[in-house]
Amino acid sequence: MTRDTAIAVAEAYFDAGTFRDDLADLVTYETESQNPAQLGELRRYLDQAILPRLTAAGFACVIHDNPVAGGGPLLTAARIEGADLPTILTYGHGDVIRAQTDQWRDGLAPFRLVEDGDRLYGRGTADNKVQHLINIAALESVIAARGQLGFNAKIVLEMSEEIGSTGLDDFFQRHRDMLAADVLIASDGPRLQPDVPTMFMGSRGCITFDLLLNLREGAHHSGNWGGLLADPAMRLAHALTTICDARGQIKVPEWRPDSLTPAVRAALDGLPIDEPTGPAIDRDWGEESLTPAERAYGWNSFAVLAMTAGVPDAPVNAIAASARATCQLRYVVGTDAADILPALRRHLDAAGFQAVQIVPQDRGFFRATRLDPDHPWARFVAASLTRTSGRPPYVLPNLAGSLPNESFAETLGLPTVWVPHSYRACSQHAPNEHVLKSVSRDALRAMAGLFWDIGEGGPV
Ligand SMILES: [Zn+2]
After folding, report:
1. At what angle do helices 232-243 and 340-350 cross, to 10 degrees?
2. Structure pTM?
3. What's residue 374's pLDDT?
4. Tell me, what's the pLDDT at 263?
5. 72 C-alpha vs ligand 1 centroid, how far in Å?
């Protein structure tokens, strides 16, 4: 039995249509963690879709209640083959964001897998169901080819990632010993280009907060009071312009990271950032002195996610009482996470906007992490992916998006290597979410090769 056998088993799983059928089954579970009414569905996913399969593959599985009220259950699984063997931990999330049922293209429905050319549509296909399905199937392929993995494998599946990984860190703190491993190898997010494997070793952090300007009780007639009452929408818009300039360059000094070193710039140099099927990149947006890749992977970005004053759908002749903007900062290592909101407070105060309140949201806080691309496990994974695909993967110091990676990197103390199986135009978190069949097949091959190689001994 050889490495090629394991890869052939993974290919056959795809080519026979079993992969498609398995993904179709996972998509039927309406695992919207943002919808409290679906809490039962979150458990059903682990109990019925995942646990029987992992048990059949020789994993000892346990479903745990979330240590935090309102969080979904978690599944842990372990297949231990020997105390002297390397142990990998892998991770996925079975929950999805809201279905947005009315907004999908004609002929599509969020919880039914629809095949159209190279695309498989369905809520949660890309984020994250296909990703953990591929990794589980690749583990099975190695077991089928070798009779065993040749290493110890542990799996965590959570059901609350889309609400900020509720309880995940608490759970890890309580179960550090159970989850002890040599490395995290997991999958989420997109490849940089569909046909080239990508790996990243951390993620940008993310903090979401409201800026709220509440000037008085109730709205007042704009004829009688216009010119006499300050307009909260105008005041809030001016406050926002102190945070970023007209091309989106960050003006809060503490929000400008100090980590864009020559080594990181070298790692990012030449990475393709354009995505043919995605939106056109605005070259004149963001930090002017940086390349687009540096802006996304090596720098911080600020966004206004939503903004309101008055009643936008039915405006009346009145000066609004208040205005609100929901804002977000995505940030890299080299930004003091604890000082992000205090720094903004100081900045707004100095600009004369003491009345603008900063209201942090409890959800959507992830810290930034990174692993050196020269770490032995990062090099090992890169070499394995190169061997399978015949060309080196793209290596990112961190993902531009955010993940609960700090729980793995800091709470569990693991080196973290992510190998994403989606692509950037997958409409993750939007209607018409889909994965590409071609990428899925390629990823099954890559992961079967990687898990085979770990069973040969891992990095020395
Ligand atoms: Zn997501």
Report:
1. 120
2. 0.84
3. 82
4. 79
5. 15
Q: Is 306 exposed, middle or buried (0-12, 13-18, 19+ CB in 10 A)?
A: exposed
Q: How far apart are CA 58 and CA 148, in angstroms?
A: 9
What the block records as the tokens of 355 is 């009345």
Strands (E), 10-127: 60-64, 74-79, 87-93, 114-116, 119-121
Give the β-pairing of 357-360 and 205-214.
Answer: antiparallel
Q: Please provide the DSSP assignment of 114-138 as one string.
A: EEETTEEE-TTIIIIIHHHHHHHHH
Q: How far is the CA of 206 from the centre of ligand 1 (A)?
A: 13
Burial of 59-79, coded b for 16+ CB within 10 Å and e otherwise, reads: bebebbebbeeebbbbbbbbb
DSSP state letter for 105: P
What's the average pLDDT block by block, 10 residues per block, for the chain (460 residues)?
A: 95 98 98 95 98 98 96 98 97 96 96 98 97 98 98 98 93 97 96 93 93 96 95 98 98 96 86 83 96 94 97 95 97 94 98 98 79 89 97 90 88 96 91 97 98 93
CA of 249 to the centre of ligand 1 (A): 26
Q: How far is CA 42 from the centre of its chain?
A: 19
Residues 6+ apart with CB under 8 A from 427: 126, 433, 434
* Amino acid, single-letter form, for residue 79: R
Ligand 1 centroid vs 96 CA: distance in angstroms? 7
Rounded Cα–Cα distance for residues 29 and 448 (Å): 26
Ligand 1 center to residue 127 CA distance, Å?
5
pLDDT at 364: 56
As a 3-state breakdown, the chain gives helix, strand, coil percent values, each rounded to 5, of 35, 20, 40
